[in-house]
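User: I want to check something. If I give you two sequences, will you return the structure for each one separately, not as a complex?

Assistant: Yes, each is folded on its own. Here is the first sequence with its structure:
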Amino acid sequence: MTELPVQGADAPFAPDWVSPPGDTILDLLEERDWTQQQLADRLGYSLKHVNQLIKAKVPLTEDAAIRLQNVLGASVGFWLTREAHYRERVAVLDAAERQVPMVPWLERFPIKEMMDVGILTKRRADAKSKPGMVGELLSFFGVATPDQWQSQYGCMELAFRRSREEQADVAAISAWLRMGERRAEKLDGPPYDEALFKAALTDVRGLSCQPPQEFQPRMQQLLHEAGVAFVLVPALPRTHVSGVARWLNARRPLIQLSLYGKQNDRFWFNFFHEAAHILLHSQQKKSVFLDDPSKAGSTSKEEQEANAWARDFLIPPNQARSLVDLPKTKTAVISFAQSIGVHPGIVVGRMQHDQLLDVRWLNDLKVSFAFTP
């Protein structure tokens, strides 16, 4: 027996979305022992129209919902909701069918890892589920088809300014960039202010001696007030990116770090490297600076400029000259770091990079970070 909601009641309706409202109409006709002709006579419709309504050949309109309420006793809302759920289900099934030819597009992405970080719902990646995965991925990128993804993201490769040749997997990189975009979209803030940004960077440098749970919220607040979005996004395979600096629009720069190299010397250098791109290369607002500044050998003028700026901002040249004669002891390094206001791990990383200190020495002065992305 088909249970009808009491007219005016707010009880939720949970229909079988695969079936059209006509199935409910047939159930009610059977209970009343009515023919379709009898229902047509009561509704004031032709028999043909009632038959088409039952078979979902015509939509159940507001007029039909009102007539069905009067004749069969359910509310207008019941019938319109039943129709809406059915049409929604039909649209989903039709979309899945259209997405079958799009399934090969999925092969461009690190699907398992994207499931692990919540971009896609975890499921078995088989022929039955893949069309739905295509829909999820399109929704994630905010595009209608892979063609629109290509025009919005696939062609971003032309804007990439890479510090490593391995950064060639455009699909994986685009997914990681999109993760950052989506997080930045939630950080509504003022437009970019270069003077405030420079002041913020000085304050942020002073936070390097604090643990992440203390400096992270303060750092994000300072950058937010300067109009710079700052997000931490887990790395995806095949991206080979430690960070990115880019402009989301003409007034909103973004610094995005991937949490590669979680030791504090790399984190701070990576951050200030990206900050340098915002300061030094703001005229290149269409460029996407993909960086792994821990890897040497970049021939890019912009990368070399960002490296030099970050290096000198963390340890200014007049103070860095003292590193040549600095005793290679914990006490000396800690004392020097305190004198210039940075964490000792930053000093160790700089000395190792400049080959003033063996890469195996004093690494216990560095700190491994655990962040809340």
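And separately, the second sequence with its own structure:
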Amino acid sequence: MAEFKNSDAVEDDLQEETKGRKRRPKGLLPTPLLRLIIALVAVIVVVVVVVVAVTATRGGGEASDYQKYMTSVSSIVKQSDAIGAGLSTLLTQPGDTSRKEIQTKLDGFVSKSQQLETQAKNLAAPKELVDKNIHQFFVMVMTFRREGLESLEPSLMNALEVEDTDVAAEQISQALYYLTNSDFLYTTVFAKGATDIVKERSLDGITVPASKFLEDPDLASKASAQEIISQLKSTGSLQAVHGVSVSKVMAQPDAQQIKAGQTYNLTSSEELAFQVTVQNQGNMAEKDVPVVVTLGVEGETPQKVTVSIPEIKGGEKVTVEVKGLNPTDYGVQATVKVEAGPVPGEKVTTNNSLEATVIFKL
């Protein structure tokens, strides 16, 4: 028959069993759970390290891209600003310069600005600068500078050749406004926008370069343009000089050169013509220059034919053919007189004409 212990006996047995076991210190987690937690912590540490490393690498690459871009921008605007400084000096302090020197300098400015615009278009810009149209505004700045210079060159050269400079001053003013507007776009849109992005992305050490093409924006006003023209025209070597001359006369169909004071035998022909070469000995373009050939015999009404040269630039030679004159009678001495001009403002006219004697033969 089974033996049952009373409650006191059971309690004594439990106490004895508890004494025999090794007790776990309070607050210590079971070993398997502790190992799992340590492993998870290790994984987390590794992940954090990797993320930090990747972020640092990505940030470093982004900073490098921005730095490379801004270095290129700095090089371009430095060269562009040098053009602007040279242009300002040319317009406000021309010194003893010639029209040819002005033309050469303007040609150089235009050519260089075209190259810089191309460089700007070919820049590899950071993605965000492109996405927010910041880089596109930089290209626009360089386009404005190129277009302004291209427009200024013919306007300025024309102003030096015409008497009425009102239209030329308006054209010069408009060309210069392209240049001052390029400064506004650069500072207000490109530089500000690029700087904001650099700050937002915490790209320390990245600086957006400054740029100023024209130091004096008032240079673009029409009043300033008029002053520029007046100053250039008052410069000794740029003062207006008017004058044309008869450079050469050829009689056809004989291909005979006619010189002043000489006598020539010419073929009596229905193809009679005089090829007259006129030279502009001044520095101003002359328009509608008359060329007159007169052929006559003493005591008779002379024949006269006039042609016009639409335009002849300073220093240029233009040849025109004068037809419609009939040969005088065979064996009779006739006088041929060739005249060019005079043009408005011409002071020396001694070389505007020549006379020679001609005798027509069968």
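Because they were folded independently, the notes below concern the second chain alone. The beta strands are 244-252, 256-257, 263-267, 273-280, 286-296, 303-312, 317-323, 333-340, 353-361. Residues 141 and 186 are 6 Å apart (CA to CA).
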